[in-house]
Amino acid sequence: MNSGALYNYSRGLALRVVAGQIVVGLALACCLAFVSANLGYSALVGAGIGILPTYYLAVRMFRRSRRALSPEQALRNIYLGEGLKVAFTIALFVLSILQLDVHLGAVAGAYMTTVVVNWVAIYAADLGESPRKRIGG
Predict the structure, then answer these.
(1) pLDDT by residue (tens digit) across 45-84?
(2) In this structure, how many other beta carbons lie within 10 angstroms of the beta carbon of residue 73?
């Protein structure tokens, strides 16, 4: 199996999920900005809270290592990355609530919208197009 093709496919899929989150987050923020500038700003903050940790995890998972990792090391890296993503998300929520003049409902709603985009993108991804499937792996 060509691991380079699988790597590129997976990386591209992860970055398309982040791009989808950005598009939906910006669209939601623009729509809410017509209602109230503070709601639009709050939605933008909430979308950012959803997007930034997801982007961090995507970059972390797909940075190339100079050495091959054992399955145990790879799994440890995944768990560590997810833990850091959760901590990053919590820190961004706390920071936004304490330091910014935001509407909590709009922040939480926009954050949840980016999470739903993540779920829908994974569900809708045509994993049948994966290079692993084409090669027979």
Answers:
(1) 999 999 999 999 988 888 766 566 777 887 888 899 899 9
(2) 12
